Amino acid sequence: MAKSIQSTIELKVQLDENRVPEKLHWTAQDGGIKNEEAKAIMLSVWDHKTQETLRIDLWTKEMPVDEMKVFFHQTLVAMANTFNRATQDEKMTQTMKDFCDYFAEKLELNK
Fold first, then answer.
1. What's the CA gap between 38 and 60, in Å, rounded?
2. What are the contacts of 23-27 at 24+ separation with CB within 8 A?
């Protein structure tokens, strides 16, 4: 039997008195990341029992709107690429990428 390997990814959220995120830090030692600051985090987890996605979306008060737009665009592009790797559905992947291009165009991200 193959040896089981375990890895840990840690998220730390510092909240203000109203429970709004002020600081976000993450650690993924296998990836060489240790206590790095982030301005936003999106995490999706598939619950196979309920057949639904559980999500955590956090951003700090200091996250600029223009950076949030880029963050969303890059996340959408990454999701399209992941969808392709997971399903090999080229037609839907291209549709998703077309939307990403449209999204970037409407937000004027390519200028």
1. 8
2. 23/60, 24/58, 24/59, 24/60
Asked if residues 43 and 28 have their Cβ atoms less than 8 Å apart, the reply is: no
Supply the pLDDT for residue 82.
Answer: 98
Output the CA torsion sign for 80, 82, 87, 88. Answer: positive
Q: Which residues contact 43 (CB under 8 A, 6 or more apart)?
A: 11, 55, 56, 57
Q: In this structure, are strands 33-38 and 9-15 parallel, antiparallel, or unpaired?
A: unpaired
Supply the DSSP symbol for 41: E
Q: Distance between CA 103 and CA 76 in Å, rounded?
A: 9
DSSP symbol at 7: -
pTM of the complete model beyond 0.85: yes
Q: Which residue has the tokens 């291009």?
A: 101
**60, 6, 70, 5: which is closest to 37 by C-alpha?**
60
